[in-house]
Amino acid sequence: MISPATIDEVKNRMDIVDVISDFVSLKKSGQNYKALSPFTNEKTPSFFVVPAKGIFKDFSSGKGGDAITFVMEHEGMSYAEAIRFLAKKYGVAIQEEQAETSQESQERDALYILMNFAKDYYRDNLLKTEEGRSVGLTYFRERGFNDRTLEKFELGYALEGWEHFSAEAIQKGYNRELLEKAGLVVKKEDGSAYDRFRGRVIFPVHSISGKVIAFGARMLGKDKNQPKYINSPETEIYHKSNVLYGLYQAKNSIRQHDNCYLVEGYTDVISMHQSDVDNVVASSGTALTEEQIKLIRRFTENVTVLFDGDAAGIKAALRGIDMILKGGLNVRVALFPDGEDPDSYSRKVGTSAFQQFLKDHAQDFISFKAGLYAREAGGDPIRKAESIKEIVQSISLIPDPVKRSVYLQETSHQLKISEAVLITELNKILIQERKRRDRDAPVEVMPLPAETTGEEQTISKLDPSTMVYYQERETIRLLLNYADQALEDNKVASFLVQELEDVEFTNEVFRDIYGRFKEGVERGDRVDSQYFLQQGSAEIKKAVTDLLTSRYEVSPHWRDKYKIYFPGEADNLGSLTLTNVLRLKFRFVQKMMDSNLQEIKKAEEKGNWDELDEALQTQEGLKKAERELASALGIVVAR
Questions:
Q1: 3.40.1360.10, 3.50.50.60, 3.60.20.10, 3.40.50.2000: CATH of 247-439
Q2: pTM score, whole prediction
Q3: Domain 4-89 - what CATH class?
Q4: pLDDT tens for residues 354-383?
Q5: Each residue of 147-162: pLDDT tens digit?
Q6: Which residues pair with residue 2 across a beta bridge?
């Protein structure tokens, strides 16, 4: 178990903007930062980072918290894994304490440790064994890979032989069951096992945070009975549809250039790095997935797909372009000469010429697709009509209507066809797709969520319990944001605790937060939002983040440019706090009246006149309290 001192040191050093920027492309928005959600596929940024409070809030998915929470959510790590990751990032030495950990967490940690051991083993084979140097290293040198590249991608070599790796791993204390779970050995029907990778060069696959989670291995001989590449199977820590090869090495360059080159294989990625083109990733020979597109979108909205110069590869890759368009990204295409791919062409022409080629030959996907189909159609009008429909079909996948309109204009200009005709064809496709979605969508009744903004409903439609919830929520929001703010001769926290002495919060999370503030006031301890973000439960952290983060803020232009000033909450804090106290009590009284009405009905049904008389007197007293509170609030009670 990681010591509290280590955790405190990590928290003291970490900067939430710095941490999240490793995974998401943030843009300044006033005093805060915003971005597209890394957790959902959205068109409008709803992911906010508030540096002053050290928190993030994703309004799209509802997730929120501090930098540690973000790493946990984004990388699927446990708390301890996230602390270790951040400790490594900020150079904090880990101090351990003995403690029990969950079996699942222990297994994940063990898999990461084993994969790192395997990476080091294969790397030592490449550099320190005669077979590795003569076979594996020779292959990499022929590819033009220098020492810096070998180290950057941690390339290795698996020796010929059935049990070289497994024997070494078992000798080092790793059990055979773990080797099987990691996909490093293959178990046979008779119970025996053999190494998955043998006599191949090794390409480690890294997670976005830099951990080795899988391997790809290329055959060097010409055995037609063996596949050219074999890859790790899916494991507890590796899901191939969620991984892009090279993203760990490319993410900063992608953000810097605001563009991501997409290629097919391991060597394509590495060769482009050799040519000083670092913003490149590969789908590793598998069909592009929605999850991989979302990964790219965290760092840029611009993708340039690099195609090999063979017709079959182009047609297969076109399907990937449609998926990228559907994911809301801007797509450009570069086509290499016949028989060439990024690896072969970069080695053929050299670094400078290769970089210039990418600049000169990248074109938008409409121009590319129109040219491709025009060459295929020749002078055949039927095939030309079919190609136009194919292009419009791709345009229909673009979620942004403005972008769709621009692409229609471009298509009309390039193919010399009426824009009105293209719009008609597009509308047909969109209508058909809408009908299909409506037909396939399951019919379900959506219940009112436990927590909502309340903007969709009028107050009169909400029951008293719901209104109490919202007012409790507002009380906690004021405490979290202004607890230490002065109110004449008092502070917000002290004032609220004194005025709400007779109030018992109904929501469990709010009750816990309020109780801690109350204890702090009584003991003279300082309690603030950071206390809950660091020590609260997952439910409390989520609630605190929700209440600390505002999706909207007044533009500084109103003040700086137009000299128009809007009073903020802090300017009217005294009035706001008093009104909140009155409203909370008002809602509690209404809730008590609602409950008491049920008691009146029960007494009437039973014919218990003593209970009825007592309940009616209680109701009269509650009505009086309601009228007094309403008068203080300046509102009229309808009943």
A1: 3.40.1360.10
A2: 0.65
A3: alpha beta
A4: 999 999 999 888 778 877 777 776 777 888
A5: 999 999 999 999 999 9
A6: 96
